[in-house]
Design goal:
This protein has 116 residues and is an alpha+beta fold. The chain has a single domain, classed as 2,3-Dihydroxybiphenyl 1,2-Dioxygenase, domain 1, CATH 3.10.180.10. It has helices at 14-23, 66-75; strands at 29-31, 37-39, 61-62, 80-86, 90-96, 102-108. Strand 5 (90-96) and strand 6 (102-108) form a beta hairpin. The longest helix is centred in the N-terminal third of the chain and has 10 residues, at 14-23. The radius of gyration is 15 Å and the shape is globular. The two termini are 17 Å apart. InterPro entries: Glyas_Bleomycin-R_OHBP_Dase, Glyas_Fos-R_dOase_dom, VOC_core. Residues 3-108 form the VOC domain. Keywords: Dioxygenase, Oxidoreductase. Pfam families: Glyoxalase. This is Extradiol dioxygenase.
Length: 116
């Protein structure tokens, strides 16, 4: 039986990104051995989209109130890298990780599966 999912973010500054995810995003973690921090995610869902492009994977964080979340991030000095855009499926933006990578964030306007 499948008991969970494990997401991997590749980073040019993994330690700084781990600390950011733990301390700024507030995701608790465990030491998987040798100081290797593995962080707990909030409830998740997976969608499979059709594409004519080569296969790829994306990782987005979801929130219930994007404006409130962005205010909190700004108060913590987190860089918002994209203006909020209105999509048919939700309100989309992104934040900057310490490594320089972008992490997309959206407020869904569609039914969600993560609470099932």
């Amino acid at each position: 039986m499948i008991s969970g999912a494990h997401v991997i973010l590749y980073s040019q500054d993994a330690e700084a990104d781990r600390v950011f995810i733990r301390d700024v995003l507030g995701f608790p973690g465990v030491d998987a051995g040798g100081g290797w921090l593995v962080l707990k995610l909030p409830p998740a869902e997976v969608a499979v989209h059709p594409s004519d492009e080569p296969p790829r994977h994306e990782f987005y964080l979801m929130c219930d109130d994007l404006d409130a979340q962005l205010r909190e991030f700004r108060s913590q000095g987190v860089e918002i890298t994209r203006q909020v855009s209105e999509q048919r499926w939700g309100r989309l933006t992104a934040i900057r990780l310490p490594s320089g990578a972008e992490l997309p964030l959206y407020e869904p306007l569609h039914p969600t599966a993560h609470g099932l």
